[in-house]
Amino acid sequence: MHFQGILAGLFVFILIGALHILVVKVEYHFGAHLWPLFLLLGLAGVGSSLFVEDTFFCIILAISGFLIMYTAWELIKQKERVERGWFPQNPKRNSNKRRKQ
After folding, report:
1. Residue 53 lies in domain
2. Taking a C-beta distance cutoff of 8 angstroms, is the pair 42, 71 a contact?
């Protein structure tokens, strides 16, 4: 029996959950201005998948890269969610822009 598909699916499931939590925490503590870092990390993951010989790890790297690139987009969207009041705002960060309306 081949368990690689099940392992890849489990990995994606766990990674999506972990990245969701990471988006919330990064926006709360640092802000959304770190989105280019996630974009570059995602591109590095996808690019490195081109050079990996093992099919399973190639797939894992590519999936991770695309999910991390999507995290960059979600970080920008998270900022909007915080501005709408759907998520808590960090009171320690200077957020005069958010308070003016």
Report:
1. 32-87
2. yes
